[in-house]
Amino acid sequence: MRALSSLRWKIALTTTMVCCMVAAALGILVHNVVARQIVGEVRKEADADLDHALGHYEYGTAHGDVNAALDPPDLPARLRALVARGQTGSMVGEQKGEPVMWAAGPADDKALAVWIPYRNTRDRLRDIDTAILASSALAAGVVALAGLFLADRISRRLATTAAVARRISAGDLDARVGFPADGDDPGPGGTRDEVRDVAHALDSMAGSLQDRLEAEKRFTADVAHELRTPLTGSLAAASLLPEGRPKEMINDRLKALHLLTEDLLEISRLDSGVERADLARVELGRAVERAVAAAGPGASVRVIRDAVVLTDRRRLDRILANLLANAHKHGRPPVEVTVEGPVVVVRDHGPGYPPELIEQGPQRFRTGTRDAGAATGWGSRSWWGRRRCWRSR
């Protein structure tokens, strides 16, 4: 969820930054255009007043209502130098501490200058800049909220898809995202929705995986069921053979195959939900002692701390029998069984499992090399590694 939240904020910040950059560019462009237009109007008015003052000066008449003077002391030096070269010009400056627009031209080796108040123009430009900034901030805020809303919608849908994927990986194959199909929710303008495509692909994968596993379960159940009848007949027929080593070998292999078939049937029942655990409260220490005694001599039991657990007594006995059989077959004595609270540990002193088997964990019907002392899974009648444990809760 943290990664998705980060994606949400990244999308929101990216859209906000893009909006701010666009607003800044447009603001600068609008400011330059408007300022050039307004200043141009004031400059044009100052140039008109300068022409009017130069005309009156040429005819020796008064300047009328125009603010004009010869070589005024506040005339900017750059404008004075321009007039000294026989040219006319205009620029913004100050006159008695007030901002004005100056316009000056040559008149008998002097500079005839006029000025127009510029404070109102400057205030107008400042108001325009304020309006541009406020509009940009408002646009950025609206875009940020819209981007956050859209990003939150996307991240929520991705979070839902990720949660369903985790449920599927945990074994819940009935989990589905369930976003509307393309025909039900085409999206704005009929555009393609990539998040929905991912969700549909995940649902399709889960459905295909579920169908495949169901087919495997049915196949396992069918195989076990079909093997059971001929095996029963083979065991009955083997009992009629004359006593001797051949009969012992045949009976031993047939019993092993019969146990494997029973394991397959139990697995198929558990996977399909037909058979469920018969849970009951059991004193774990006494139950383990009875199970170890029933499995035969050769193992010692030590109860460090007893506990009452909710478990299936029949499967508890079977698990312990499998662990003890594997310890005697593949390990070395002494075989020790320890009960400490809800934890039962069956330990032998053999070489244990190779690292690759320990890393991958128990798997059904997986067998390692004989030298490794190791097989894992139901069919090989064992569960863990060098230190084999069973936990009942």
From TrEMBL:
It is an enzyme of class 2 (transferase). Keywords: Kinase, Membrane, Phosphoprotein, Transferase, Transmembrane, Transmembrane helix, Two-component regulatory system. PROSITE patterns: HAMP (PS50885), HIS_KIN (PS50109). It catalyses: ATP + protein L-histidine = ADP + protein N-phospho-L-histidine. It comes from the Bacteria. The chain crosses the membrane at residues 12-34, 131-151. Residues 222-379 form the Histidine kinase domain. GO terms for molecular function: kinase activity. It is found in: Cell membrane. CDD domains: HAMP, HisKA. Its main location: membrane. Its EC number is 2.7.13.3. Residues 152-214 form the HAMP domain. InterPro entries: HAMP_dom (IPR003660), HATPase_C_sf (IPR036890), HATPase_dom (IPR003594), His_kinase_dom (IPR005467), HisK_dim/P_dom (IPR003661), HisK_dim/P_sf (IPR036097), TCS_sensor_his_kinase (IPR050428). This is histidine kinase.
